[in-house]
Amino acid sequence: MRGFLAQDPSQEPVILFRKLVRDKFPKPNSFTLAFVLKCCSILVAFKEGRQVHKHAIASGLVGNTFVQTSLLNFYTKCEKMELGRQVFEEITDKSVAAWSAVIGGCSRVGMVNEAMELFREMQRTGVKPDERTVVSVVSACAVSGALDLGRWLHAFIDKKAIKNDLRVSTALVNMYSKCGCIEKAREIFETIPFKDAKAWTTMIMGFAINGLSEEALNTFGRMAEAGVEPNNVTFIGVLSACAHGGLISEGKKCWSGMLDSGIEPSMEHYGSMVDLLCRTNQIAEAYEFVESMPIAPNPAIWRIILVCCKNNKMMDYVEVPAKQLLALEPLNAENYILLSRLYASCSKWGKMSDVRRQMRDRGIKAVPGCSAIEIEGHMHEFVMGKWSHPEAKDIREVILEVSERVHEFGHQPWIAAILQNVGDAEKQEALWEHSERLAIAYGLLKTKAPVVIRVVKNLRVCVDCHEVTKTISRLYDREIVVRDRVRFHKFVDGACSCRDFW
DNA sequence: CTAGGGTTAG
């Protein structure tokens, strides 16, 4: 089993374990279980791992510390946090590995407050974090965009003399990039003496999501000069940098370079390429590219095509993608909303109401927009239209004041962004309940200039929020950084770093 | 003789 684990991921250890159990001889010991559980976590084989857990209970091996940590890691890799926590609570003498595993689990599913709390509790109980622990907790900050916590951890690493090895540095580069501090990310990156493919890729990704496409390409060039082989993920970074920057010929060059180096394009690569063609409005070529793909396009690719049709108010390439999309994902609200807006943009009102009716009949509810802001080391979440925050009353007052000033300034609300069947006044009000505005209002309430207001959002920003945020940055003389699902927007003095291209 | 936790993804 150990031999198979040292090679590419495979089912073999699980198959061997089954045979061992069937033969009833020899009896598996804690080493055996650790190996087979490792295999289950790599494969995310939930059912198989559960069987092993049962076996561990029956054989009494469940009390072994290695078996426990292996089980814990297995559940967190399957994103079964409740089951993982159960195993964790049962461990009497929690090792640094156990703490790291549970913190890493929280981090992967974006539970940053929980990850931080566990990190503090770990130290309270006298267990010293090591490199692997801090990588997990720094990564939690990256996922959620918690810059202050990330900075605190960076200082902690320096102070506690935790070895700033390649992986710790890479995690810090990633954290600063994902928090919009690209210069800090670059600074740390440059101090890494021997950069591996992951470090290079992380830096390239960082430049890409921060809108520095040329820097991403430069870094890719330096990586080649350094003789580090790019991998499939590197190309996702480079291609998405080209897409965000509208760098069409560079993107095509990267694509053929990738094929030359023998990397087989995955769905993500095709997606980036379609994105690149669509952002530069080459819809015909994009559609042709999709038709030539050797694998069946996934919903994300069809959505890119349809967004492009919507932006160009064009019906020529809608039929097949629309049909495919609803066939592949009949329960995803995002698809119905996109199609409805697309038909509206082309004034196909009949088709628009068809889609809306379909959505209603199937009882599909839209995923609400959700934005978070970090205040005093805690992430505060805001959901569109929800006023459940303890300080909701104060936030509402800020919103009222801001909306008045923004409208006085001459802002025309983009009510086309609202689909509901309500009057224009209600539509305007609904816009002011968009989650990022609640988060920004909370930032205005709790912080003062020159503190940057940093917001992380689960969806993309809408046109109206983008305009309003530009205006707020000027009227209130505040720098506002919004990380949306795909990239950063840095608003300073009435303008955005994306130059209105996102 | 062999075992547990780590970073990148449209």
Can you give a write-up of this model?
This protein has helices spanning 2-5, 12-23, 30-43, 46-59, 65-77, 81-90, 96-108, 112-124, 131-144, 147-159, 166-178, 182-191, 197-209, 213-225, 232-245, 248-260, 267-279, 283-291, 299-311, 319-328, 333-345, 349-361, 392-408, 424-431, 435-446, 463-475; strands at 370-375, 378-383, 453-457, 480-483, 488-492, 495-496. The chain is mainly alpha-helical and 502 residues long. It has a domain at 371-496. Strand 3, helix 26 and strand 4 (480-483) form a beta-alpha-beta unit. The chain starts with a helix and ends in a 6-residue tail after the last strand. The structure holds one DNA strand of 10 nucleotides. Residues 410-502 form the DYW domain.
